[in-house]
Design brief:
about 325 residues; alpha+beta; Beta-Lactamase; Alpha-Beta Plaits; 5-stranded mixed β-sheet
């Protein structure tokens, strides 16, 4: 028959069913259940990846363990990721890093990563968290594009054009080259809207923008200022004749009929050209003088180009 001393001894004996889980077991459970991708890198290679990390990258645990993390990083972003990781480990604080990750299926996603030092199985390691932020980055890109691009044609708007012109002017000053600002206006565009409707007018503007883009160099800019007005920026040109040659190509291209649904529409354009440095040395002066030259082109009968005569041969 058990004595009271036996009962006391029994009460002090740990009940294994009620023991707290070991900290290592708890840590593993937390890593598995975390709402973000988690990985551990040791000796430069993956030693642990949770299930969400596998889902985000498209690779299985077996495919990831033992691999180098940078293999998942978009090539152009690898140096940034490397620098951020070094900064985090040196400072002892987690430094966020946004970069592009290449999934197993080739899809590129944006991720937010944070890394910190940790101990894993008795050795120094790097613990990283990994979150898919692709939707946020796409929204940011869309909002940025709305601020700098024309919603109808997708071309740069005045804000972005002004910025590129300022950059072009700085380059032209540094390299002692010329730059051309060409202001274009579609002749009698209002008649197109009144005759065929605004939908046809919008289609015409989009098609005209595409034709302009097909003529210029990759380094040039085609922008829509609003209404039926476009601007072509030609940076780094050697002489005025370069701008004249582009103008002649534009005139010929716009003269060709536009087939819009059941309609075949013919329009022309008037072009005004201002050249840096002769016709202006700042953004607003070049815009103003190109616009003035465009109205001279209209006064001459439309469907042609006019240079802003900086030498006084023309006066307002």
């Amino acid at each position: 028959m058990p004595t009271s001393r036996d009962k006391q001894k029994e009460s002090r004996t740990p009940d294994k069913s009620r023991q707290k889980p070991r900290s290592s077991d708890l840590a593993q459970a937390l890593l598995r259940c975390a709402g973000t991708g988690i990985y551990i890198v040791q000796d430069g290679k993956f030693q642990y990846v949770n299930s969400l990390f596998q889902q985000m990258t498209g690779y299985s645990e077996g495919e990831l363990l033992g691999q180098y993390p940078l293999n998942l990083v978009y090539p152009e972003d690898r140096e940034t990721v490397r620098e951020k990781a070094i900064e985090s480990l040196k400072s002892g604080r987690s430094v966020p890093c946004e970069y592009r990750c290449v999934r197993k299926d080739g899809e590129v996603i944006w991720v937010l990563e944070k890394v910190t030092s940790a101990e894993y199985k008795g050795k120094q390691a790097t613990l990283g968290s990994f979150m898919d932020i692709t939707e946020r980055k796409e929204l940011e890109q869309k909002l940025a594009e709305m601020a700098t691009h024309d919603p109808l044609t997708g071309l740069p708007n005045r804000l972005l054009l002004s910025d590129r012109l300022a950059v072009g002017l700085a380059q032209a000053q540094r390299n002692n080259t010329r730059l051309a600002v060409m202001m274009l206006d579609l002749d009698r565009f209002k008649t197109v809207n009144d005759t065929f409707g605004h939908s046809a007018g919008d289609e015409l503007l989009r098609a005209a923008g595409e034709r302009l883009m097909s003529i210029v160099r990759k380094s040039d800019t085609v922008a829509r200022m609003g209404g039926d007005e476009f601007v072509v920026l030609l940076p780094q040109i050697a002489k005025m004749e370069d701008a004249i040659r582009v103008s002649q190509k534009i005139l010929g291209s716009i003269r060709k009929p536009f087939v819009l649904g059941a309609y075949q529409i013919r329009v022309t354009t008037s072009i005004g050209i201002a050249i840096y440095p002769e016709d202006g040395e700042d953004v607003e002066t070049l815009f103003k003088n190109a616009d003035t030259a465009m109205y001279w082109a209209k006064e001459q009968g439309r469907d042609n180009y006019e240079l802003y005569w900086y030498d006084g041969m023309k006066t307002l």
